[in-house]
């Protein structure tokens, strides 16, 4: 496993597209986990300029334990597309440069090849989960009014859910990249699928009130794992925990994309 | 002799096209084995299958007496028509990936780069390389694992004469070190110069399999130049050859039986003709190849 990760990192790290996407992702992560409060303070000062002292967004406990975990993960997951693009690049490059063929000729089995990509997807998910954990701890300690072990760690399982969300989504992009083999078309299809197809079906299912359609949409199912926590700040009820059946669905989608990708690579001639 | 590669009943179907039809081959240790055939005869498909990048429709093959497993390809070095590497990586970065795949230590990288004369460009990106340099890098990559078998697919395609000569020298060098080499090519001259065995494929069928040294045997022809108005008739009347053909100012007679060039010379001299040019030609692989293909027209046709 370390050998495959080593191979994959050697292929990907010097790649410019990967570097640019990774930097964008890291910047987004730092802004989300550090910049929201300063933004609220800026809003407050603007409101004050307009003599609207009554509105104070800084009272929203965005960065306070334990709310911070659900808040950070549910916002950060919107940037998963950046990691998805980097993975699509890495798989479609192997096809357009024909290096997948050369890798197999050199002695990698097709299964090892797929696993090197899956391990990379897992590595990226684990790294961003870890980074989010560290950043969350830092800002949490800065902004929380009350700190205790149970407050800090009570909702930390949202990070685990975040990891599964990212990993399942990256398996989806791996499948799209393997299926299409052309980077631009694969990325276009990914965006089209997420924005048009899934949203279209979602809205249609809501209109017709057919609830199960949502479960057939992979990205919607993945997004739904961590519920949007923000309505609770205007006193609406939200699901502030991870439901087991939703977690099971995400794992099921991940497994399905793994199976489909493996089948594609093994059946095809290179 | 130890068998390195054995192919039994291998077939490959691309939709309606049968690219490979029940191929049986055996390559022994130390052979330099040439696979000949016109374009589209199934050479590259065969190599693709034995390197596990193309799935066969039926049949099987064995490397070193066992079914191909994850370690067999680590003992094989392959140089294919188009060198394939990551264009955005340097020569060293590319070869280190191959090291990781083949599980060989990194210190081989510098050795092989020196061996192929690329050490000055080792930290430049692959995409800046000329075709000759790319081909040399793929040779370096094939040598990384100190392979017991080398596979070459049209190794000199697109190279300049100097590059072709370098590759040929390298093949001979590798062959002399006792390694088994399998070459697919349509350049007959190349195969004749380096190979010990050869086979001919046509439309996916094996139509000939034999030794290169047997090629020269059999019919010989003699090339004659002399100052005479009707050399054609004189030669035809000699009864030494089966056929006389004129090529510009010289006449080529295909010899019959054991008759030799000396007999031709003596015959002409008796007739009062002095030959000013007399050359014995044994049959080239090219001629043999074309004869084999022509002889099998019905067999290969669909």
Structure description:
Chain B: Keywords: ATP-binding, Nucleotide-binding, Transport. Chain B: InterPro entries: AAA+_ATPase, ABC_transporter-like_ATP-bd, ABC_transporter-like_CS, P-loop_NTPase. The complex is a heterodimer of chains A (270) and B (302). Chain A is mainly α and 270 residues long. Chain A is built from twelve helices and no strands. Chain A has helices at 2-12, 16-34, 36-49, 67-76, 80-96, 99-106, 110-143, 149-153, 157-180, 183-207, 218-223, 244-267. In chain A, helix 2 (16-34) packs antiparallel against helix 5, helix 7 (110-143) packs antiparallel against helix 9 (157-180) and helix 9 runs parallel beside helix 12. The longest helix of chain A is centred in the middle third of the chain and has 34 residues, at 110-143. The radius of gyration of chain A is 21 Å and the shape is globular. The two termini of chain A are 23 Å apart. The model of chain A has no long low-confidence stretch (mean pLDDT 91). In chain B, strands 6-7-8-3-9-10 form a six-stranded mixed beta sheet, with helices on both faces. Chain B has a four-stranded antiparallel beta sheet with strand order 2-1-4-5, with helices on one face. In chain B, helix 2 crosses helix 3 (107-115) and helix 3 crosses helix 4 (131-143). In chain B, strand 12 (241-247) and strand 13 form a beta hairpin. Chain B is an alpha/beta fold and 302 residues long. Helix content of chain B is 32%, strand content 31%. Chain B has two domains: 3-214, P-loop containing nucleotide triphosphate hydrolases (Rossmann fold, 3-Layer(aba) Sandwich); 220-282, Alpha-Beta Plaits (2-Layer Sandwich). The chains are: A mainly alpha (270), B alpha/beta (302). The interface between A and B is medium-sized, with 26 and 29 residues.
């Amino acid at each position: 496993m370390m050998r495959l990760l080593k191979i994959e990192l050697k292929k990907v790290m010097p790649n410019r597209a990967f570097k640019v996407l990774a930097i964008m992702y890291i910047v987004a992560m730092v802004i989300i986990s550090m910049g929201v409060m300063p933004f609220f303070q800026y809003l407050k000062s603007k409101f004050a300029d307009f003599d609207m002292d009554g509105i104070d967004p800084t009272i929203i406990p965005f960065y306070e334990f334990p709310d911070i975990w659900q808040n950070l993960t549910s916002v950060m997951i919107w940037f998963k597309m950046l990691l998805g693009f980097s993975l699509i690049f890495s798989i479609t490059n192997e096809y357009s440069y024909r290096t997948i063929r050369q890798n197999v000729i050199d002695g990698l089995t097709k299964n090892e090849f797929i696993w090197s990509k899956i391990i990379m997807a897992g590595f990226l998910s684990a790294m961003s989960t870890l980074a989010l954990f560290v950043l969350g701890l830092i800002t949490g300690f800065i902004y929380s009014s009350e700190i205790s072990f149970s407050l800090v760690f009570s909702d930390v399982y949202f990070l685990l859910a975040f990891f599964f969300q990212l990993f399942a989504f990256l398996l989806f992009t791996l499948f799209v990249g393997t299926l299409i083999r052309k980077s631009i078309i694969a990325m276009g299809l990914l965006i089209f699928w997420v924005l048009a197809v899934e949203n279209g079906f979602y809205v249609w299912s809501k209109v017709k009130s057919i609830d199960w359609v949502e479960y057939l949409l992979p990205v919607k199912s993945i997004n739904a794992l961590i519920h949007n926590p923000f309505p609770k700040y205007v006193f609406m009820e939200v699901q502030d925990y991870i439901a087991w059946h939703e977690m099971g669905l995400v794992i099921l989608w991940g497994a399905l994309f793994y199976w489909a990708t493996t089948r594609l690579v093994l059946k095809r001639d290179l | 002799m130890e068998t390195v590669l054995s192919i039994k009943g291998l077939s490959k179907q691309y939709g309606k096209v049968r690219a490979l039809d029940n191929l049986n081959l055996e390559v022994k240790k130390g052979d330099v084995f040439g696979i000949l055939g016109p374009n589209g005869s199934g050479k590259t498909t065969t190599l693709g299958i034995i390197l596990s990048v193309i799935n066969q429709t039926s049949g099987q093959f064995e490397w070193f007496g066992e079914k191909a497993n994850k370690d067999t390809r680590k003992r094989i070095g392959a140089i294919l028509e188009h060198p394939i590497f990551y264009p955005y990586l340097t020569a060293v970065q590319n070869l280190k990936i191959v090291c990781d795949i083949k599980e060989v230590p990194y210190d081989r990288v510098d050795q092989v780069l020196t061996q192929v004369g690329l050490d000055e460009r080792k930290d430049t990106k692959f995409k800046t390389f000329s075709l000759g340099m790319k081909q040399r890098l793929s040779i370096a990559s094939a040598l990384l694992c100190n392979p017991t078998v080398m596979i070459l697919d049209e190794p000199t395609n697109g190279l300049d004469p100097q590059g072709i000569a370098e590759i040929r020298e390298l093949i001979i060098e590798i062959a002399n070190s006792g390694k088994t080499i399998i070459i697919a090519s349509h350049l007959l001259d190349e195969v004749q110069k380096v190979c010990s065995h050869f086979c001919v494929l046509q439309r996916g069928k094996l139509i000939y399999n034999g030794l290169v040294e047997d090629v020269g045997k059999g019919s010989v022809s003699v090339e004659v130049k002399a100052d005479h108005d009707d050399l054609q008739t004189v030669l035809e009347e000699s009864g030494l050859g089966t056929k006389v053909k004129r090529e510009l100012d010289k006449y080529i007679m295909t010899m019959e039986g054991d008759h030799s060039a000396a007999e031709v010379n003596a015959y002409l001299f008796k007739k009062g003709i002095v030959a000013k040019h007399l050359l014995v030609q044994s049959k080239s692989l090219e001629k043999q190849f074309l004869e084999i293909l022509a002889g099998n027209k019905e067999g290969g046709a669909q």
